Amino acid sequence: MTLINVTQSEAKQEAAVRRAIISVVPDYFTWPAEIQERYRATMPDEDHLRIRQVLLKALFDIKTTNREDLEAALDCFNDGQYLLLNSAMLQLTGIGDDYLFLNEGMAENTSLLDFRTIYDYDYADHLFQESMRQKDDSTYIAKPYRGTPYYRWARLQINGLFHYANLCLLGGYVNSKLEEFGFDKIYEMIPHEYVDGKNHGKREGQGSIFDMRVDAGGLEAQLEELKNRYYKYLFSRCEAILGDFDAKAPKRVYLVDVSREAEPHMDIIFTDKTALQAVSFRQFMKDCQAIKGDYGELSELIEKECQAALGFLDQSHQDIITNFDPKVVKLRKKMKIIVSDAAARDLL
After folding, report:
1. 278 in Cβ contact with 285 (< 8 Å)
2. What's the whole-model pTM score?
3. What is the DSSP string of 279-333?
4. Exposed, middle or buried: residue 294 (CB in 10 Å: 0-12, 13-18, 19+)?
5. What does the pLDDT look like over 219-253, one tens digit per residue?
6. How far apart are CA 229 and CA 223, in angstroms?
7. I need a labelling partner for 63 at 20 to 30 A (CA). Which of 41, 52, 137, 185 fits?
8. Which residues are within 8 A (CB) of 187 and not within 5 positions of it... i.e. 6 or more apart?
9. CB neighbours of residue 329 within 10 Å
């Protein structure tokens, strides 16, 4: 794409954004910056819908009259169209210097502006989740806070350019790499595929039975045992890494560009809770850059963990093939999965 085309595209998007917000809130650009930001962070659902409708018409010449029309139009979008729409919407929903938008649910009457740092948000969410678990199970013992390891999805501008982002703790990031690495190795050790079970696709009520089974050439029980052992291994390594980095508190952030064509994407990995405390939502990228770590450190750790996982899998595979009795069946409740017609359509 030439510079002229890029400039024209940016101008078109800027005009569409202004048209969208003015059509819903005519006085928006007369407000102080703080009030504009508060509105973006707490935008009512109805305003959000109307703004997206205006953007669809301005950017793609698609007219929609209600939420159902809009969702149907979005179902047909490709990655490039979603990128353009999300880039435009970010200017109307993000906060701070980088227009950060956290794609997470918020409690009623709560917005991202109520939390200064990532730590503040993450710790509050941890307390809420643990309290819910204790409410559901009176014997549950709340876990100490070491940061949330799993991914949180975000959108933001990096150097003025729209990006999707995954935010996670180092323990969760390494665990995801180990999971991908390990199950590839398991497939090499015991080749297998998923095939239709005898009831797959049969109608029941308003849906169809989902019945896929694993075909491992007669080694199905051995495969399941190997997977189960590896799941336990993954959990133990994730817990160990979380504990190790929580104790060391290196306070670093790793920025990993995982962009694909038509999808600029960044993995943002925090070593521990002190790194979460050091990064604010309002100056997100500036704060990340201030404690940015060398990716070589992270790469070295992943390689070390992968080699240890390979050793575990080799030993476990050999033990299972030699000593495991597939006739000893572990008792477990049999489950029937029914996929509704509406959910099946969403998967297409």
Report:
1. no
2. 0.86
3. -BSTTHHHHHHHTBPPHHHHHHHHHHHHHHHHHHHHHHHHHHHHH--TTSPPP--
4. exposed
5. 999 999 999 999 999 999 999 999 999 999 999 99
6. 10
7. 41
8. none
9. 8
